[in-house]
Specification:
163 residues; alpha+beta; 3-stranded mixed beta sheet
């Protein structure tokens, strides 16, 4: 009789132990999933915040580009021997360096480069030496913010010469 009681208690303890181990594994798996979900959420939030920080200054930088253009226009109208040209150039460079710190880059285009509509906007054609459809001259500088074109470079393209 005592043996039967011991067997029943043993079977009961073994069943409770198996149930406890099952619950432990279930809770552990749930905890691991929750931990992984939290880790993924944190990574996504960091990426989202980085994106917003990069793009938050876009409107301001776009407005400052207009001021930078005005500096360029003013400097091009000044004589080389004008004493204020050096000061204006320093202020323009300081403005550009500050904008560069926030991710603004000048889009580099050379005469003779093939036309790329992702970074350039054709505003006309002129007769010049070189392959037709390639860039003849840069009219207005273009700018990119963190690799994304903010304002395309405005260019004149080379057209085929009429023989």
């Amino acid at each position: 009789m005592e043996e039967e009681i011991k067997k029943e208690e043993s079977a009961d303890l073994e069943a409770r132990l198996l149930e406890a181990e099952r619950l432990r594994d279930e809770y552990l798996d749930g905890w691991k999933r929750a931990k992984a979900d939290l880790s993924n959420y944190k990574k996504e939030e960091v990426e989202r915040m980085e994106y917003f920080v990069k793009r938050s200054n876009e409107a301001l930088l776009h407005d400052l580009i207009v001021i930078l253009d005005s500096f360029e226009l003013g400097l091009s109208a000044m004589r080389e021997d004008d004493s204020s040209k050096k000061g204006m150039t320093l202020v323009r460079n300081q403005l550009y360096d500050t904008m560069k710190k926030y991710g603004l880059e000048v889009i580099q285009i050379q005469k003779g480069d093939p036309f790329n509509p992702e970074i350039a906007e054709a505003i006309g054609e002129i007769e010049a030496e070189g392959p037709p459809g390639s860039i003849a001259e840069e009219v207005t500088k273009g700018y990119a913010l963190h690799g994304k074109t903010m304002r395309p470079t405005r260019v004149m393209l080379i057209k085929t010469k009429n023989e």
